[in-house]
Automatic annotation (TrEMBL):
Belongs to the enoyl-CoA hydratase/isomerase family. It comes from Acinetobacter calcoaceticus DSM 30006 = CIP 81.8. Pfam families: ECH_1. Gene3D superfamilies: 2-enoyl-CoA Hydratase, Chain A, domain 1 (3.90.226.10), Lyase 2-enoyl-coa Hydratase, Chain A, domain 2 (1.10.12.10). This is Enoyl-CoA hydratase.
Length: 278
């Protein structure tokens, strides 16, 4: 299906591939020869996509998955080698810091995207790939996917992903996983709260994805955006002010188009008009 107008003008390389099915955008990490390791081009491309769809009400969800049967093996070590040359030329370690911070900015952008972000996990889910999972709204994984934070074993630190991992699973679990650099599979990822669902084969994985998409379509588009933004604010704002503002948003929602349609659909025992899309 043709991409939304907000995406058609993008000039991105082939480190990612985009497909769209109605209100659902599929973003494929597309470097299978390196197990979809993230290089700067991929980070830039992901940022461009999420910037383009920020105000696009026609896109309700973004599904992120990896080509070649694996999600993402982390950051591309080859980029580190190239940065070593740049750092030597300028006589400073700043190129490393700039590169690393750029990745963190991408994670912030995905986490705060108004669309529902779903990750489908197979194969390697390591380092930066693990961080990308931690900023998703819904994570569905194969049982045999390989998760881990291997940074300390490479003599580096999970600098940008650490805050997102802690928010996802809590400080105690984050300490254990990061300091041991341990590898683990889907059941452990489910147990510690990294992911939400496990599939035991490819067919089950696709079925769970389609069920999730149908549930996303049943939720009112604007209400979903407002709910996601409200949930993000709960971590940073004083409770009294947040509840006052949330009450005003609730009133606007009830009196708005979606609230009136949703209420009427409930009374008439039918699906609301936003759930009609197949």
């Amino acid at each position: 299906m043709t991409l939304s107008k907000s995406l058609q003008a993008l000039d991105i390389d082939d480190s990612i591939q985009l497909e769209q099915d109605g209100s659902i955008l599929y973003l494929w990490l597309n470097r299978p020869e390196s197990r979809n390791a993230m290089n700067l081009n991929m980070v830039n491309a992901i940022q461009q996509v999420f910037a383009a769809i920020q105000d696009d009400l026609s896109i309700r969800a973004v599904i992120i998955r990896g080509e070649g049967g694996t999600f993402c093996a982390g950051g591309d070590i080859k980029d580190m080698v190239a940065l070593r040359v740049e750092a030597s030329n300028v006589g400073s370690l700043q190129p490393y810091a700039d590169f690393n911070r750029h990745f963190g900015a991408m994670l912030e952008q995905v986490e705060t995207a108004p669309q529902t972000v779903v990750v489908i996990l197979e194969g390697a889910v390591l380092g930066g790939g693990f961080g990308l999972v931690c900023v998703s709204d819904i994570a569905i994984s194969r049982d045999n996917a390989q998760f881990g934070l291997p940074e300390t074993g490479l003599g580096i630190i999970p600098a940008q992903i650490a805050p997102f991992v802690v928010k996802r699973i809590g400080l105690t679990q984050a300490r254990r996983l990061a300091l041991l650099g341990m590898r683990f599979e889907g059941p452990t990822a489910l147990n510690v709260g990294v992911i939400h669902q496990i599939a035991h084969n490819e067919l089950e994985l696709e079925q769970e994805l389609q069920e999730t998409i149908q549930q996303i379509k049943r939720a009112a588009p604007q209400a979903s955006r407002m709910t996601k933004a409200l949930l993000q604010r709960t971590l940073n704002e004083p409770l009294n002010h947040l509840l006052d503002d949330a009450a005003q948003q609730f009133a606007q929602a009830v009196g708005g188009v979606e609230g009136q349609e949703g209420t009427m659909a409930f009374i008439q025992k039918r699906l609301p008009n936003w759930a009609d899309e197949q």
